[in-house]
Amino acid sequence: MTVLKGAAFILAALLLAAPGVARADAGTPVPKPSIGSVQRLAAFPSQNVPARDVDVWLPPGYSSKREYAVLYMQDGQMLFDAGITWNKQEWRADETAARLMAEGKTRPFIIVGIHNGGKRRHVEYFPQKPFEALPEDFRSQLLGMNRNPQQVLFDGTVDSDAYLKFLVEELKPYIDSHFSVATGPEHTAVMGSSMGGLISLYAISEYPLVFGGAACLSTHWPGIFTVENNPIPQAFFDYMQGALPDPATHRIYFDHGTATLDALYPPLQIRADAVMRQRGYTEARWRTQAFPGAEHSEQAWAARLDIPLQFLFPPD
Question: Class of 6-312 per CATH?
């Protein structure tokens, strides 16, 4: 079964160099948000995955006298300060979150930005159960695939179950005990883009008693960088059929653009939406939005971040 050959491989290499493919940088400076403050949890230890930095953003006026909802965001080094990111882009998560709270459009929340694992990003963000459901010969091809001539795409075996254990069993208890937050699923959400969108969907499906909401922007349904002869999307949709959380109690948001890597997503999102409907999701707790012309980049996600934030954390 062919995965990537010839021109397709060249296209993949170009896409991987484009904005939106977050990388981990050793010794990343602590971000300087435009509003609010950031507390760095440097090299946060884990028995499940390699240690990594975590940046906790607190809104203006943060007070221990009230409880805040919590948003866990993937690719945490890309959220608050374009001056320290590899592509000089950011989500502008601090500005957007602070504005929405000030305008009363969301309830108060903090953001926990979890830095990705660098070379391990793909193995930590690729949902493990759908991966293990793929044919064995195809899995072997994937694990031998290169991201570029100098780097493999999968730096080891897929390990996203361990990543979620780190998030749920190690990081969340620390956040719950060191910050003034509400701890129930109705107050806890997860968000990411591209591969970060996949792991966010996986998180709410595997841990529905922990996460009550998930926002998946530019969800990377192909898993790799071609849709030809690619069984990965169907593996994701089959997993969703059996694993999606209760539509009466959980919120799930999807979106995509139509340019650069996002051009692959519209027909696949239609198939994902069909599964959502079959599982009983309605507009009350599920949204899918398309943004014509939007590319696969932090700039594009920043431009529409207010929409999923309002969906995840509506005012009390």
Answer: alpha beta
Q: Name the residue ranges covered by the structural domains of the chain.
A: 6-312
CB 85 within 8 Å of CB 77: yes
Phi then psi dihedrals of residue 111, to 5 deg: -120, 130
Q: Is 246 exposed, middle or buried (0-12, 13-18, 19+ CB in 10 A)?
A: exposed
Residue 106 CA to residue 289 CA, distance in Å, equals: 19
- Please give the model's pTM, rounded to 2 decimal places: 0.93
Smallest CA-to-CA distance from 41 within 60, 57, 25 is with: 57
Using only C-alpha atoms, what is the Rg of the chain? 18
**Digit-coded pLDDT (tens) for 194-248:** 999 999 999 999 999 999 999 999 999 999 999 999 999 999 999 999 999 999 9
Q: What is the dihedral of CA 76, 77, 82, 87, to 10 degrees?
A: -110
Q: Alpha carbon of 303 to those of 55, 104, 143, 245, 297: distances in Å?
A: 22, 19, 34, 28, 10
